[in-house]
């Protein structure tokens, strides 16, 4: 069973409402309902009773919740133990949402320190929710996330979690697709509209249902790309790029990373009818003690994202 789903289950029990739990966990309500239903099917029991007053635990659900709390507490303690052991030897411990610009900064710091006698580094590319959880628990010392500018409540949420948010840059969303895509042949590289993409497959990462990129506010209203008729799920960036280069599928991100076109023949063009922007930032525990590598990583992130914004002024707010 996916341990992430246990956290979603515990949230529904805590808030007594799938809608409120979905908002608190930054996941769509339909997807959270699907996760709970999937858990019930796997366990062969009903965990919640839906009433007009909200969602209430059944007797079986109460039993599962008691075990769930123990499991999650043990997982958090293991993460804290792992983090403290790694810090003893010097570290670069990062959790991030999947963006190549951030990963390239991580790789560059590892390159700079490759001849150091001893260190212990890790990079976890995951969902926004998991980045927040991993930084809060101490599993990672630095988090790098993205969110839409529409979500103005997140910084207050981070503060309540004891986390500091450091803004990096703000960009408009881009569509990522093959350089030979028929839409590029038809419209060029000036950009495409969402309606132009409706007949093509959408490539997305497994497990990131709450990703803000998948919920697009357009001039004609909000669109949830999770509801696209054709969806292809992938695990990592390499799979995604290989698939985009050989098909007429697309995904959504920001401007191209270094070597994207030359290595994969995949380009990024503006999403023309999008009325919101993507905001990037760093998460730290308040009062965090960072290693030299982590401090250098943060500085490199700031420089990299500032240059990206300077090079794409039409993309910024």
Strand order of the largest sheet: 4-3-5-14-6
Apparent shape: globular
According to DSSP, the number of beta strands is 14
- Provide the low-confidence segments as ranges: 84-89
Number of helices: 11
Order of helices and strands: HHHEEHEHEHEHEEHEEEEHEHEEH
Mean pLDDT: 86
Q: Quick one: biggest sheet?
A: 5 strands, mixed
Rounded to an integer in angstroms, the radius of gyration calculated over CA atoms is 21 Å
Please state roughly what percent of the residues sit in beta strands, choosing from under 5%, 5-15%, 15-25%, 25-35%, 35-45% or over 45%: 15-25%
Overall structural class, as computed from helix and strand content, comes to alpha/beta
User: What distance separates the N and C termini?
Assistant: 42 Å
Question: Portion of residues in helices?
Answer: 40-55%
Task: Describe the model.
Strand 1 and strand 2 form a beta hairpin. Helix 1 (3-15) crosses helix 4 and helix 5 packs across helix 11. Residues 84-89 have low confidence and may be disordered. With 317 residues, the protein is of the alpha/beta class. Strands 4-3-5-14-6 form a 5-stranded mixed sheet, with helices on both faces. Strands 12-7-13 form a 3-stranded antiparallel sheet. Strands 1-2 form a two-stranded antiparallel sheet. The protein contains 11 helices and 14 strands. It has helices at residues 3-15, 18-25, 29-43, 59-88, 100-112, 128-137, 154-160, 182-187, 237-246, 260-264, 292-311; strands at residues 48-51, 54-57, 91-96, 120-125, 142-148, 163-171, 174-178, 202-205, 215-218, 221-224, 231-234, 250-253, 266-270, 278-285.
């Amino acid at each position: 069973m996916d341990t992430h789903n246990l956290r979603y289950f515990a949230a529904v029990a805590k808030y007594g409402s799938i809608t409120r739990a979905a908002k608190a966990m930054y996941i769509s309500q339909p997807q959270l309902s699907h996760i709970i239903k999937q858990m019930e099917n796997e366990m062969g029991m009903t965990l919640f009773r839906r009433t007009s007053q909200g969602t209430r635990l059944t007797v079986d659900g109460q039993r599962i919740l008691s075990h769930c709390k123990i499991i999650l507490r043990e997982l958090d303690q293991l993460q804290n133990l792992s983090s403290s052991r790694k810090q003893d030897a010097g570290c670069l411990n990062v959790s991030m949402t999947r963006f190549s610009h951030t990963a390239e900064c991580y790789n560059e710091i590892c390159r700079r320190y490759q001849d150091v006698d001893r260190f212990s580094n890790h990079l976890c590319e995951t969902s926004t929710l998991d980045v927040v959880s991993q930084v809060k628990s101490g599993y990672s010392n630095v988090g790098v996330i993205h969110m839409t500018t529409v979500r103005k409540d997140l910084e207050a949420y981070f503060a309540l979690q004891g986390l500091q948010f450091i803004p990096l840059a703000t960009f408009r969303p881009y569509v990522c697709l093959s350089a030979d895509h028929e839409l590029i042949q038809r419209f060029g590289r000036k950009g495409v509209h969402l309606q132009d993409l409706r007949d093509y497959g959408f490539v997305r990462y497994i497990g990131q249902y709450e990703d803000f990129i998948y919920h697009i506010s357009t001039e004609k209203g909000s669109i949830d790309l999770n509801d696209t008729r054709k969806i292809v799920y992938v695990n990592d960036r390499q799979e995604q790029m290989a698939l985009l280069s050989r098909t007429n599928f697309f995904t959504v991100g920001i401007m191209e990373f270094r070597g994207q076109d030359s290595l994969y023949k995949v380009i990024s063009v503006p999403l023309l009818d999008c009325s919101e922007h993507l905001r990037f930032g760093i998460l730290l525990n308040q009062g965090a003690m960072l290693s030299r590598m982590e401090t250098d990583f943060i500085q490199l992130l700031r420089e990299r994202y500032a240059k990206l914004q300077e090079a794409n002024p039409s993309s910024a707010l």
